[in-house]
Amino acid sequence: MARKSLTIFLILSLLIVVTSSSPVVAYGGKVLVFKISGTISMAHSEALIDALSVAHQEGYSAVVLMLSTPGGSLDSTLRMITAIENSPVPVVGYVYPPGTTAWSAGTYLLMATHVAAMAPHTIIGSCQPIAYSPFGSEPVNDTKILNAVISVMATQARAHGRNETLAISFITENVNVNDEQAYAQGVIEFRAESLESLLKLINGLEVKTAAGTVKLNTEGAAVTEYTFRIRDSVINVVSDPTISSLLFLIGIFALIYGLSAPGHGGEILGAAALLLALIGMGFDVNIVSLIMMAAGAILLIYELATPGFGVFGFSGIILLTIGALFIVPFSPEKWAISGEWYATFTYSIVAATLVIAGIFLFAIIKILQVRRRPPLIGRIIGEVLTSTEDAPPNEVAFITYRGEYWQAKCNTGLKRGKKYKIVGKEGPVLILEEILEST
């Protein structure tokens, strides 16, 4: 009896030791791919949180965060880093396809992943905060801002055993490295030409996650690409600063069009575009820019209400352009994005403003010209024409008047070659009166 009790005691003790140690979990052979291309936005953070939840619930072995980005919203990036840190499913960062970049906020995300990899000829770095200006953006050297982002970068590099010194130099010296340099200097663990080869390389690797140590089971895994929900897809598009700024411009010009020519749908288009722009910006707009755009719109409306097009009109377009350039508050505390992207943004907004302004102003001016013309019917009453058709009394026929086809009728009928006087109009039909020839 004592021997039996001792055996039970030893078995229970062994179970306690095994369950109290960090488990090595092997998820099923499924991988979820989450793509980040273009500017990182709040939609990406919402979608990644959902993707990690799906991966955990459905037993995925790993989530591959595929990066191709110039950077983006720092707030959204920090939310994504927190989600990765708390994920029980390993997150593999992969800069892909070959030749692309994961600058600024993209590099922060790569450093936060459990496994970091890059495709051939890809580049990471350029993380120094940038102060936006349409005349040439400048790096920020404010120690308060620098210390905050350096702390994030250093913490993530240290947590995953990567070259902390190089990671910090991405910020302090705006260093850029390609895949070979990043691998040689220890800021990534793998280089892979394709997703398939990457999954083969990391198979069997043990990584520490929020749930403990996880052994990756990725070789030959079934790959599923995460699909954004409709809401996130819409927000992802409109939250791109270039798109949201253009939507704001279109909304302003459409409202000007609607006020100048009511009944053509300009008011509806303008309201919809402005609402989408505000949603994309998270209702976080530069108030001074908003005032400038409103002033520009007022000047344009005033100019269109007066003859000609002069100083007020050009001033209005200039104010709208400047307002559009600054409508998104690009503060370095909120945006981690490359200087090259800022330059492209400036050129795009200036060019688009001129094109959009030209289209809307052309349409408005043409409508106003038509409205200022004297009434056509008032001028043609009393005009004399020669009938080109025969028609019975009060029957409508098509005749030619001043080279145009008109509908016409006469109570005595129409005869080809006979002269008639225009005495009125019923809708689109001219009312004619026979001219009696003197004998």
Keywords:
15 helices, 439 residues, disordered N terminus, alpha/beta, 3 domains, OB fold (Dihydrolipoamide Acetyltransferase, E2P), 2-enoyl-CoA Hydratase, Chain A, domain 1, five-stranded mixed sheet
Structure at a glance:
The chain has helices spanning 2-20, 42-57, 74-85, 105-112, 143-159, 164-172, 179-184, 195-202, 230-238, 241-260, 266-280, 287-304, 311-326, 339-372, 376-380, and strands spanning 24-26, 30-37, 62-68, 71-73, 91-95, 101-103, 115-118, 123-125, 130-131, 138-139, 176-178, 190-191, 206-209, 212-215, 222-225, 335-337, 384-386, 397-401, 404-410, 419-426, 429-434. With 439 residues, the chain is an alpha/beta fold. A six-stranded parallel β-sheet has the order 12-7-5-3-2-15, sandwiched between helices.
Descriptive account of the structure:
The protein has 439 residues and is α/β, with parallel strands linked by helices. It has three domains: 212 residues, 2-enoyl-CoA Hydratase, Chain A, domain 1 (Alpha-Beta Complex), CATH 3.90.226.10; 133 residues; 58 residues, Beta Barrel (OB fold (Dihydrolipoamide Acetyltransferase, E2P)). It contains 15 helices and 21 strands. A six-stranded parallel sheet has the order 12-7-5-3-2-15, sandwiched between helices. Helix 2 links the parallel strand 2 and strand 3. Helix 10 packs antiparallel against helix 11, helix 12 packs antiparallel against helix 13 and helix 13 packs antiparallel against helix 14. It is elongated and about 110 Å long. The N terminus is likely disordered.
